[in-house]
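Notes from hallway chat w/ T.B., transcribed later so I don't forget. T.B. wanted the structure written out for a chain they're using in a teaching module, and asked if we could keep both sequence and structure tokens in one place. Agreed to drop them here.
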Amino acid sequence: MNDFSAEAMGLVIREHRQAQQPPMTQEELAEQADYGKGGAVSISRIERGLVSPREHRLAAVALALRLTPGQLEQEAEDRTRSLALQRGRRPVKLRDQVAETKRRHAEITEKTTQRSKITQEHGESFKRVHDVVRDKFFMRFVALAESISGAPEPEKPGEKEIESTREAPTAIHIEAMSAGIANAIRGAAAGGAAGAAVGGAAAYGAFTAAALFGTASTGAAIPTLTGVAATNATLALLGGGTLAAGGAGMAGGTLLLTGMVAAPAAALAAAGFYVVKQRRNKKEEERLRTQIEAAEKDLDQSQKGFDTMVDVLSRATVIMEYVEVHGIHALEKWRASLPPESRDWESLGHGGQERYKGFLTLAGCLLAMNIVNVPDLLTAEPGPLRELDEIIDETLRYADKTIRSIV
């Protein structure tokens, strides 16, 4: 991870955009960098230092500006050092110190407010499509699968493969999730509680909890793709909210995530009296300045995690939207082709059996995506953050490729 701030990168990108002949608009840069719908808003947020483009986005932006990613990064690193030197120079007069502190306080408040807004936008977008896919694909597939007797048990990954999650490829995790789902389906078909009241968040939570526990025959906790024990993920599922924020998945993390990114501003609230105070002494000014510097540091340290979180939610939303359009349609076609109940495995025919297996794998992909622990990204140190980023990136890439191959 490079040593530049989002503010510095935003300034550098804006300057290069405006230096084009003729000057390039934010809309034009967004189009050339392949940002898609609403791309100008993304470019605006980058230039204001609210988010920093991830590696693949940075490469596209650099190409649009006729630069290399390395050139942009180097300029951003140089600008970061320059900005730090400027902030380190304290005005001599108390009046000027007060004015500077007020300005920095306003900048932090605005940045934190915007972070919360961005988080809420992405969280709500994901939640909308997640809930549709949960009810119209995942739980409908579960209900159909419960009506089929004699389906073979999927081949499980070995216990040692599952336990060594850090080294295991994403495919092993997906296999484990799919096997757990199949076991939960069999349990529900046999009268287990997991299949009761199919549909809706409560049934989904109960079912996926059973599916997670069902992925290891020993009953041992299985580490998730972010290193959190499956028992924790299961408790989160049953506790409300979403997996992304300690509840039922990536979908319900908006409130908690918003609270987390707003923390620096909340810490400054107690000092607000001194910000608006017309006169304050040197001791008061020093105290407020110290608090503001601490809040700036908190925001800077969490920036890369915040950028990763935004990218993860955005990519996961796109994958879910694909399932919403194509997966639900494919499932409905399969449902219409099924023989009347009571159904057994042999009555499906080869085509129907292969469709069942494909949908089971797709459901495993969805479950693997949902248990990604997004809030960890905001608090992780650089080393662990890099590891989390790589694991999540591999999960999303594999899930996207696999889902598209199935439907």
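Follow-up for T.B.: The chain is about 70% helix and 0% strand. Might be a good example for the class.
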